[in-house]
Amino acid sequence: MNTHYVVADVGGTNIRLASIDEKTGELSQIKKYLCAEFPTIADVVKEYFSELDGLVKQLCIAIACPVDDDLIEMTNHTWSFSQQALKKALGLDKLYVINDYTAISLAVPFLADEEKVQIGGGEVKDKKPIGICGPGTGLGVGHLININDKWISLDGEGGHTSFAPTGDTSRQVLNVLAEKMGHVSAERLLSGQGLENIYQALCSIAQQPAKFSVAADITRAGLAQECQQAQLTLEIFCEGLGGFAGNLALNLACEGGVYIAGGIVPRFIDYVKNSSFRGAFESKGRFSAYNAGIATFVVLHPDPGLFGAGVYLRQELKVI
């Protein structure tokens, strides 16, 4: 009978599961389910297991919430569960529950060339620290270090550090948002909601009514050059993201590269390539030459959470 190693990526709306080849890391039998259609996580995992030809003895779950205690309580869904109870209910030998951004981070060193695209210059140094940030619903941030040929994800809340403007217009935007919010974190600008915040602030500065209310419309109008404030929104977003990524590079000497994950940037990569992103990344005063030597990439893998959960599981199996 076949033995399957299974990984899961759990968000507030969907849960995706896949069987992973423990030797190659290849994902297969990928299925997506709506969380709302299942009373518990055990119910949906059992359904997935029933569709596999064989037994499952090891499972790694990447989930969007804290994972430090046995009791897991999702922050953006109603599911909660005991890790020990879930392991018993599923008949597993091993259950690993990791943060979703830990999984995304761990995917990075194992991406194929076609699963990432380099922005600007710089070179990757083998086994050196890596920085990752991911503008999406929020701004995920992480670092990776290699210890004895094993990649370790360093968790943190870097998205909530104070936003550092890199130009006069972004300083004006910061002032508008500070009047409204008080503390302005990087996530307030470098996310889907951040695009909306930047655009609304620019409209306020220009004393013009906002034509758009959602990030997708702002992005489309900016790329089509239909709206000056939408165009400027994309410029400030890319400049701010470059400056933020450059700070990540300096924080831990990320000579292994800095990677941009998340669902936003892959939608307009060509624009990012020609934007001020890389210039802002390198513009670090006395350390500009240092950052110029560090490579930056955008992650294109369609399922980095699933893939990274597989990396975690394979490292525990000691096959990589």
Automatic annotation (TrEMBL):
It is an enzyme of class 2 (transferase). It catalyses: D-glucose + ATP = D-glucose 6-phosphate + ADP + H(+). Its EC number is 2.7.1.2. It is found in: Cytoplasm. ATP binds at residues 8-13. It comes from the Bacteria. One of its GO terms (molecular function) is glucokinase activity. The keyword Cell inner membrane does not apply. The keyword Protease does not apply. InterPro entries: ATPase_NBD (IPR043129), Bacterial_glucokinase (IPR050201), Glucokinase (IPR003836). Its main location: cytoplasm. Keywords: ATP-binding, Cytoplasm, Glycolysis, Kinase, Nucleotide-binding, Transferase. SUPFAM superfamilies: Actin-like ATPase domain (SSF53067). Belongs to the bacterial glucokinase family. This is Glucokinase. The gene is glk.
